[in-house]
Amino acid sequence: MTTTMGSDEQPQSYFPRWKFKASGVIMPEERLSWGQTVVSGLQHCVAMSGSTIIAPLLMGFDPNVAVLFSGIGTLIFFVIVAGRVPSYLGSSFAFIAVVIAATGYAGQGPNPNLSVALGGIIGAGVLYGVIALIVMWSGVGWVERLMPPAVTGAVVAAIGLNLAPVAVKAVSAGAFDTWIGLATVLIIGVVAVAAPGLWRRLPIILGAIGGYLLYLLFANGLGFGKPIDFAQLAAAPWLGMPSFTTPTFQADAIFLIAPVAVILVAENLGHIKAVGAMTGRSLDAYLGRALFADSLATIVAACGGGTGVTTYAENIGVMAATKVYSTLLFAFAATVSILLGFSPKFGALILSIPGPVIGGLSIVLFGLIAAMAGRIWVENKVDFANPANLITVAVALTAGAGDLTLKFGAFTIGGIGTATFGAIILYQILTSPLARRAE
């Protein structure tokens, strides 16, 4: 089986041959020495670990299972894009608000309605796959017209704002919890701004470690809060089977969660464009495959109890810093993640993270989701003097932040769905020929 990279290149085998290159920019079809490949692959594991672990905790998912399926999903992506698009697939934050809304999750411990959330995530994956197949057949132009930067940014911001009350509640149980949460926020900020080298790209995981140690000192050591219980961690075996969960399908949950597919499309599109710009070659020919791979990985993950997945900006940041784009790094990182998924000891350690520390992480992560909208608007030079852009964004932000809920008989659309579909539909109405004719 062959595939073609571009008009100026010869047909190649399905997978690259990964030629060795010792230094300089390492392209996707090249590789470092095997020792450097291992070290660089582990670096990508660290880069993805913060968000891939925190996202399932915020939804009440098993972090072991989420990490396992992030590895499986990355390998699915690797195979479908023929090993030519460097990317890691980790837990998607776009699902958090709708999963919490669909399951009524209280924010602590396992989610009692996890199976319902999994059915909705599968629904999102199926819709995502349909969109991917259409893109493979017709190209990406219609997606860009349907979801221009003004709309995409509005939806991303609405997700972050919708999640804000969840983050604040997590650090509001008492004064001690609030101060630990704020200290975690401060550690993340200091690492992001002042840490040396690549450590600066790991603020979430280092913030979690710092907050954990602070809580351990003041709660277990000085008695200011509820001590961390290490009994479960001590009892957990080093190796064992993950706790898989099968999905159940409820129409309301599917209808609420499925629209996240729109966000995943926009997110993946942006990441593929970013990697293409960094490598100096267009990856548009693989966009349809990338979308389909992400959708399939999301469906597979949800079939066993994992979160929906998406391509990770954290790993794109590592590539930008190192100039190493070899896709072999991601195959290795995925394999390590799969192995970690079979370690109950690892999962028990993650589950021992105190609630206020998770709350501090949430404040930053949910805020970053909202702030990412600003980056989308600035980079794409969105004109807010244009009333169509301004009104679309204003309505979406208010609907998302206020969790505007619409009911259609037995179906309910929460704030995220209202903001998503509202932004898409309103923008099309305001930019229609009829609207322009009335100017």
From TrEMBL:
Protein name as catalogued: Pyrimidine permease RutG
Keywords: Cell membrane, Membrane, Transmembrane, Transmembrane helix, Transport
Family membership: Belongs to the nucleobase:cation symporter-2 (NCS2) (TC 2.A.40) family.
Signal peptide start and end residues: none
Localization annotation: Cell membrane
Domain of life, per lineage: Bacteria
Membrane topology qualifier: Multi-pass membrane protein
One Pfam family hit: Xan_ur_permease
Transmembrane portions of the chain: 65-82, 88-107, 114-140, 146-167, 179-198, 204-223, 244-266, 286-312, 324-342, 348-372, 408-430
Principal place of residence: membrane
